[in-house]
Amino acid sequence: MTEFAELKFYATQAHDCSYLPTRKATTLFLDPQQAIDAQTYADLSEMGFRRSGEHLYRPHCQHCQACIPARIPTARFRANRQQKRILKRNLDLRVRAVRPVASEEYYDLYARYITHRHADGDMYPPSREQFASFLLRDLPFCVFFEFRLGERLLAVAVTDVLPNGLSAVYTFFDPLEDKRSLGRLAILWQIAEAARRGLPAVYLGYWIRDCRKMRYKSEYRPLELYVNQHWVTLE
């Protein structure tokens, strides 16, 4: 267990919120001089922290509690009818775990995904520098789960393997393969993989009721939300 009294944290100045455009946000970061080990990361994830690049953070807004940490308890999850159809539709894909490395194949898929799906967001336009700083970190717990049809790369789920679960950092996929529902597939596959590894949860980041792009997380039931410093179940 991490001794939190020994850790230092820093809060940013108020900045434009990435999720709710009319609001300002403040972010709490773990001291970047603090080496990120899997156990510290796992302990902080229990308190709603996430990873972006080499930074662990969580929202720290004084007058807004819209960003609620969310996780799926793997032992209790049951796929609904639509999710079962997604799994069946993608039985022809092969998944393998690889170390994060720089490659044109990964960047091309990432750039096409950002351009087609997030041209209205702060990650557009994509760049190699942005891709590397966000996702290509040399961290021992970070894995790229590749989803391939034959040799063709369709999706990559960037995932942190922690003592207390899998943390779904980011997923990018072929934007022209709508019928496969690759984003949802990646979450379903990570739930199954966490169960195979005997891990209790998949951490999904933040659930935000008023953010359209974040509502999909409530499709996975039961969903646990971190409210008032406790994890509570949304059935």
From TrEMBL:
GO molecular function: arginyl-tRNA--protein transferase activity; leucyl-tRNA--protein transferase activity
Substrates-to-products reaction catalysed: N-terminal L-aspartyl-[protein] + L-leucyl-tRNA(Leu) = N-terminal L-leucyl-L-aspartyl-[protein] + tRNA(Leu) + H(+); N-terminal L-glutamyl-[protein] + L-leucyl-tRNA(Leu) = N-terminal L-leucyl-L-glutamyl-[protein] + tRNA(Leu) + H(+)
EC number: 2.3.2.29
The keyword Cytoplasm appears for this protein: yes
Main location, first listed in the record: cytoplasm
Gene Ontology biological-process annotations: ubiquitin-dependent protein catabolic process via the N-end rule pathway
Keyword annotations of the record: Acyltransferase, Cytoplasm, Transferase
Main enzyme class: transferase
Keyword set includes Cell inner membrane: no
Purpose: Functions in the N-end rule pathway of protein degradation where it conjugates Leu from its aminoacyl-tRNA to the N-termini of proteins containing an N-terminal aspartate or glutamate.
Recorded family membership: Belongs to the R-transferase family. Bpt subfamily.
Protein's name in the database: Aspartate/glutamate leucyltransferase
Annotated organism of origin: Geopseudomonas sagittaria
Lineage of producing organism: Bacteria, Pseudomonadati, Pseudomonadota, Gammaproteobacteria, Pseudomonadales
